[in-house]
Amino acid sequence: MYKQIMRFIFIIILFASFVLPSTAQEDTDQATVRCYYRFIQKQKTGDIILQDTLTLDVGSRMSRYYDERKIRQDSVFQSIISNLSPDKITSISIIKDAESNLLDNSLGNTYRNNTYDGISEQIYKDRQNGKIIMLNTSGDLSSNWYKGIDSVGMLNWAITPDTAVFLNYPCQKATLQFRGRNYEAWFSPQIPINDGPWKFFGLPGLILKAKDTDGFFDFECVGLEYQNTPCIIEIQKQKYFECSRKNYNKVIKNKNSGQAININGGDVTIAGFKTDSSFQPMELE
């Protein structure tokens, strides 16, 4: 009887907490250009706390900005969870707000998925309408998906006479005050693409470099490809908690630092790590 109850509980957890995203897709545009950006985030001390490479797929109307490596990492972790057999489970322990080293010396096998080992957020920009859709998971044991809707309109860039060269393209400088931070960006008129990393767009050329003036965030294009076969920009059709930008940012701010699962025979321990307060949001307003 005990085993039957535990198996039932495990199935409920598996379905409600670690369900894989639906494979059904919604096509929105076709991307003909792919850009790769090195992203660096620093602390106030100047120490780097995150360095990653993100991808920007650009279509005629829309774009998608995402971390391909993080998507694969999340998928592998969720696959490990979904492939567990309830028939072999004898006990399940769930621990919230655990220390990150909690399962380090545990018997059996431990699998980790650190929230800040990459960027789980995906950003879709509708440049024509100044609308941005942000997708992200809650980062806790529920693994809920959230969809944030952001209407930014047209960004108020100020183009300056300053010039520089990035990725062997001549660029011109522009500045922007956006939601509590000041940014400098360099765009190339030789690449007539009205887009860039993160939520940046609205300049007469692709943004190859952007950073905030306080030195916390830095984006730089390190690769550019023209796609012979366009790739589809698609938004997954699945259950989202749709919310305003303000509420979406609250969810992301409270994300914990990751999850781990330890499998020791029939004993399973699932832990969610404490929130890392060292990460600063890009938007202060």
In short:
With 285 residues, the chain is mainly beta. It has helices at 2-17, 68-82, 245-253, and strands spanning 25-42, 48-59, 62-66, 91-98, 109-114, 122-126, 131-137, 145-151, 158-166, 169-178, 181-188, 206-212, 217-236, 241-244, 258-264, 267-273. The protein is 14% helix and 49% strand.
Q: What does this protein look like?
A:
The strands form two sheets. A twelve-stranded mixed sheet has the order 9-10-11-12-13-1-2-3-6-7-8-14, covered by helices on one side. The chain is mainly beta and 285 residues long. Residues 1-25 have low confidence and may be disordered. It has a domain at 2-36 and 52-153 and 224-273. The longest helix is centred in the first third of the chain and has 16 residues, at 2-17. It has helices spanning 2-17, 68-82, 245-253; strands at residues 25-42, 48-59, 62-66, 91-98, 109-114, 122-126, 131-137, 145-151, 158-166, 169-178, 181-188, 206-212, 217-236, 241-244, 258-264, 267-273.
